[in-house]
Structures are given as structure tokens and as C-alpha cells.
Predict the structure.
Amino acid sequence: MNSNNKYIKLPLPDYQEPSKTVLTKSHLKGVEKLGKVVMPDNSDFPAFSEIQAEKYLNRMIDYMYDDDRSAILVILKLFSIMPLFKIRWTMSLIETGSKWQGMLGAPFRMLQIALKGLIFTVYYSDVTDDQVIHSKIGYDAKIVM
């Protein structure tokens, strides 16, 4: 790969080994708090804290681009020390900013996709033992012929 080219050419020439991200307790606490804000408790569905996301986060985070992963880990560390009302306020600000047109709203839209995507992907992957979430939303990936 050309050293002055910062973009990766596809297809990749060799198998790319994912990094082995080590999530600290503060990262996990940040994910837990973000999950409470993005996926508030609902009596019909398991709470985000009940699905034990910490067991499955590496499956996704290890495959992120380095810059994206670094940014997410910094944000999660910040969220770990912030009270819930400030995280709600931050997510509300991101939501408002994501509606702005053009380049002004682009960073907010990227943040919104990253933060909500992290929570939604882990939650709706339904890693619960009896796949409660998939059965509640009627999701079935069986192919019937």
C-alpha cells in the first residue's frame, strides 16, 4: 500500500486481523448509561442493562476503523463520569443538531449514528439466552421454500 495514500483500496490485499480492544470498567459504565438514555426501560422488553452488552461489545468494536473506535471509546469514558441528565441533554443536543441542513449538521448526524448504532446493534442482535427481543418484535430469519 502506498504510504502517502491515507485511504484503503478495496478489495483488501490480505486478511485484516481485527484489533483486540480492551474495554475498561469506565467504558462499560458509559455504555450502560448511554443504553439507559437511548433505550429507556419498557415493561414489554428487557432493559438494556439486562442483556449484558459488555459480553458482546467487542464483536462490534473490534471491527471499527481505528479513528472511529478511538472516538467512541473517548465518548464512552466521558459518559461514565457524567450524570444521566447530562447524557440525556447531550443526546438531545445531538438530535437537534442532526436536523440542521448541510455541513453544519453533518458531525451531529455522524455522532447520532455512531452512538445510537452502538446501542441498537447490541440490543437488537438479541444475544439473550432465549432470544426474547426477536420473538417480541416478530423477527424470524428462517428461509421457507
